[in-house]
From TrEMBL:
The keyword Heme does not apply. This is Pyruvate ferredoxin/flavodoxin oxidoreductase. Keywords: Oxidoreductase, Pyruvate. SUPFAM superfamilies: Pyruvate-ferredoxin oxidoreductase, PFOR, domain III, Thiamin diphosphate-binding fold (THDP-binding).
């Protein structure tokens, strides 16, 4: 008698869909194993297989396409006593292919049931990585240009310690699921099924033909002896116990006592190579040295070595709930690229906003207080403009003062870099 199926949410699949048989097979397996429902979790993917979590009276987590194994990993590591079962279709199999390989290598005690019906059944019958080359599917000829993937062979090669394959019509389906769940390590069981809603409309498929397909595949052996090794969670906790020395948490002591310090927002607009992110870190540490709360957001191209670079810093005596810049008190415009990345902020600047603009940089019209500086005339190299700009801020006591800046530079730089930076800062103070 069913113990796990949710009577208020019975399985609803297309007539003849094999997923219903697999749902009932999993229910029988859970019942035969007498697993406690409150210690069992079904993690599902997107697609028809993603409905599984609603059909069972267990804990459940429904994730995004291809990522089910990542959630399952977190659950199992957080609570090793949980029985974690993942359901995934052949669509999620390839979308989350790297996660499947990682799970095979890791050997965490999870059970992955792959419901392979050879197509993306829920979204139109497009081909998947398991679609036979000769099949007629909803994505024209694309499957004819590729060969189908054999996940069981790949899983063995990637290090899975238990691999099985069977038809969704197998008389011993529940027994095979039981064996996969009982295995202490990562187990995969691929079930082959029929998608009556999409696939079989143009591709004749029967339980007998599924059996024939299984005979033609390399035979998985269940327990893969050559891959046997300690379960990942066990090994992880064993190694963690051996570790007795841990790095000390970085702390920044309050060195400076300020008077009535107000909430400050700083935006640094530059380009790659100008050390914009470093400058943002220094401004942030200057605030921390004064006992303030700080948030930093950086924005730069993925290529890193070219394009705009932006740093947004908030320094406040109060807790910072939202790190977005709403009303900058300081804007450092050091390159046209950075200005273009944040050009919309200039229209809303207040008259008391301090805008430091490098001489050759163009900025949109603004109500802010604009101060122009020619770093080239001061013989300051371009890669030092951001640091020099902090010197201007400190000199005019905008968001930071000189004492705060010096403490931050000492914290962020080694001795030689600190001395070089101070040479640049002194040029600004002496200008």
């Amino acid at each position: 008698m069913s113990r796990f199926l949710n009577k208020n949410r019975p399985p609803v699949y297309c007539p003849g869909c094999t997923h219903e048989k697999i749902t009932k097979g999993l229910d029988k397996a859970l019942t035969d194993l007498n697993l406690p429902a409150n210690q069992t979790v079904i993690v599902s993917d997107i697609g028809c297989s993603g409905l599984f979590d609603t059909f069972f009276n267990t804990h459940a987590l429904h994730g995004i396409h291809g990522r089910a194994l990542t959630y399952a990993t977190g659950l199992k590591l957080a609570d090793p006593d949980l029985n974690v079962i993942v359901t995934m279709g052949d669509g999620g199999l390839i979308i989350g292919g790297t996660h499947v390989l990682a799970a095979c290598r890791r050997n965490l005690d999870l059970t992955l049931i792959i419901l392979n019906n050879f197509n993306f059944g829920m979204t139109g019958g497009q081909y998947s990585v398991t679609t036979p080359t000769e099949a007629v599917v909803g994505s024209e000829f694309l499957n004819q240009a590729e060969i189908p993937l054999d996940i069981c062979t790949i899983a063995q090669s990637a290090g899975a310690t238990y691999v099985d394959r069977c038809s969704g019509y197998d008389a011993d389906l529940s027994g095979k699921i039981c064996k996969a769940i009982e295995h202490h390590g990562f187990s995969i069981i691929e079930t082959l099924g029929i998608c009556t809603g999409r696939y079989t409309k143009k591709n004749p498929l029967t339980p007998a033909s599924l059996d024939q397909m299984i005979k033609e595949f390399p035979e998985p052996s269940g327990r893969i002896e050559k891959n046997q090794r300690p379960e990942y969670g066990d090994r992880y906790r064993e190694l963690a116990k051996e570790k007795t020395i841990f790095p000390e948490a970085a702390t920044i002591e309050k060195k400076i006592h300020l008077g009535n310090y107000q909430h400050q927002e700083v935006v640094i607009l530059g380009s790659a190579g100008m050390r914009i992110v470093t400058a943002g870190d220094i401004v942030g540490h200057a605030g921390l040295c004064a006992g303030m709360n700080v948030s930093i957001k950086n924005d730069h191209n993925v290529t890193v070595l070219r394009g705009p670079s932006v740093s947004e810093i908030i320094i406040s005596p109060d807790k910072i709930d939202y790190p977005g810049i709403e009303s900058p008190c300081v804007v450092l415009a050091l390159s046209d690229e950075g200005v273009q990345r944040r050009n919309k902020i200039f229209a809303s600047l207040k008259p008391d906003t301090f805008v430091l603009k490098e001489k050759k940089v163009s900025i949109p019209q603004t109500h802010g207080e604009i101060v122009e500086i020619d770093f080239r005339k001061l013989k300051i190299k371009k890669q030092d403009w951001a640091i020099a700009s902090l010197g201007v801020m400190a000199k005019k006591e905008k968001a930071v003062n000189k004492e705060m800046l010096i403490h931050a530079l000492k914290f962020c730089f080694n001795k030689n870099r600190y001395l070089t930076a101070m040479e640049t800062i002194e040029k600004i103070f002496n200008a």
